[in-house]
C-alpha cells in the first residue's frame, strides 16, 4: 500500500515499515540494473512507488533520511550492484521530480517549490514543514522584502563564485554601512539559526526580514561591492553570501522567485515552468 495514486496508505507501524522498505528496495534495485522509466513507459511502477513513499512519509510525519535509507538498500543488493555510485543520486533525483509534481498539484507555486527543493528534501517531513511556513509567509505584506534580501545578497556575487570562500575579515570592513551589517550579523545570526534548528521556519523568516531588511538595503545604497581592490571585493561578497546562505540553504532559496508574476494563492513568483514528468496527484499528504 498504497497500490495506486488514490489508494490509502498503511496505518499500522508494521505496515508502514514494510511498505517503505519494499518501495525503497524496489526503486534502488531497479535503478541499479538500469530498469528506469522511459518516457511514459513505467513497466515496474517506479513512479507509483516513489509517490507512495512520499505519501507514507508525509501522512505519518516520519523523520528519516532518503539518502541514508537508499544507500542502505543499495548495500543489501548483490555485489555487482553495490559499486554503482550513481544509483542513489539518480533515485533521489527521481523522487525529487515526483515531489515537485505533487506539490504543484497541491497548488504550491512552481518557483516556490523549486526554491524549497534547492534547500534540500532529504527529510521529507522537514521539507513539508518548510513549505507550509513559506506558503504562510508568501501571503504576508513583508514577503517582497524577504525575497529581496535573499535575492540581492546572492545576485551581487553569483558571477564570482570563487570570491566568497572563507570567513569575513573584520579588518577589511571599511564603510559604516558594512560595519553595521556585520554587527547585525554577528549579534543576531545565532538567534535566527536557532529558530531554524528548532524547525520554527515562519518565525525565522519574520526575524530574518526584520533584522536584515534595513541594514542590507543601506549597504546596497552606500557600499560599492565590485571595487578594484580584489581582497575588499571578495570580503564584501563573503559577508553577503553568508547572509544569503543562512536562509537559502536551510529554508528556501528565494532568489529563484521573481516578484510580480501571478502564481496561485501566493500571488508572487516566476511564470509557470515546464513540469517534470510524473503522475498527477490531487494532494501532497492528507491535506
Can you put this structure into words, describing what you see?
With 287 residues, the protein is mainly alpha-helical. It folds into 2 domains: 13-109; 137-266, Orthogonal Bundle (Isoleucyl-tRNA Synthetase, Domain 1), CATH 1.10.730. Helix content is 58%, strand content 0%. It has 11 helices and no strands. It has helices at residues 13-32, 46-59, 66-75, 79-82, 87-105, 110-118, 124-137, 143-155, 176-197, 201-222, 230-248. Helix 7 (124-137) packs across helix 10 and helix 8 (143-155) runs antiparallel to helix 11 (230-248). The longest helix is centred in the middle third of the chain and has 22 residues, at 176-197. The chain starts with 12 loop residues before the first helix and ends in a 39-residue tail after the last helix. Mean pLDDT is 87; it is low at 261-283.
Amino acid at each position: 500500500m498504497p497500490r495506486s495514486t488514490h489508494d490509502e496508505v498503511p496505518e499500522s507501524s508494521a505496515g508502514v515499515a514494510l511498505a517503505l522498505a519494499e518501495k525503497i528496495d524496489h526503486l534502488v534495485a531497479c535503478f541499479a540494473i538500469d530498469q528506469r522509466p522511459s518516457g511514459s513507459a513505467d513497466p515496474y511502477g517506479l513512479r507509483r512507488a516513489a509517490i507512495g513513499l512520499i505519501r507514507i512519509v508525509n501522512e505519518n510525519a516520519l523523520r528519516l533520511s532518503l539518502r541514508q535509507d537508499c544507500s542502505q538498500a543499495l548495500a543489501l543488493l548483490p555485489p555487482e550492484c553495490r559499486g554503482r555510485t550513481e544509483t542513489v543520486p539518480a533515485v533521489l533525483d527521481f523522487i525529487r521530480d515526483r515531489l515537485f509534481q505533487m506539490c504543484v498539484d497541491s497548488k504550491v507555486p512552481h518557483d516556490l517549490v523549486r526554491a524549497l527543493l534547492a534547500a534540500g528534501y532529504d527529510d521529507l517531513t522537514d521539507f513539508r514543514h518548510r513549505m507550509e511556513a513559506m506558503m504562510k509567509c508568501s501571503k504576508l505584506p513583508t514577503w517582497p522584502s524577504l525575497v529581496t534580501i535573499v535575492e540581492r545578497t546572492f545576485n551581487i556575487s553569483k558571477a564570482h563564485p570563487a570570491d566568497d570562500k572563507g570567513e569575513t575579515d573584520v579588518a577589511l570592513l571599511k564603510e559604516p554601512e558594512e560595519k553595521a551589517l556585520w554587527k547585525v550579523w554577528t549579534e543576531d545570526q545565532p538567534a535566527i539559526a536557532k529558530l531554524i534548528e528548532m524547525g520554527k521556519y515562519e518565525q525565522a523568516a519574520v526575524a530574518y526580514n526584520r533584522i536584515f531588511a534595513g541594514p542590507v538595503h543601506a549597504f546596497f545604497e552606500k557600499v560599492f561591492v565590485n571595487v578594484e581592490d580584489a581582497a575588499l571585493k571578495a570580503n564584501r561578497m563573503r559577508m553577503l553570501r553568508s547572509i544569503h546562505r543562512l536562509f537559502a540553504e536551510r529554508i528556501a532559496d528565494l532568489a529563484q522567485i521573481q516578484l510580480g508574476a501571478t502564481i496561485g494563492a501566493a500571488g508572487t513568483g516566476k511564470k509557470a515552468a515546464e513540469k517534470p514528468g510524473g503522475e498527477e496527484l490531487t494532494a501532497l499528504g492528507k491535506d
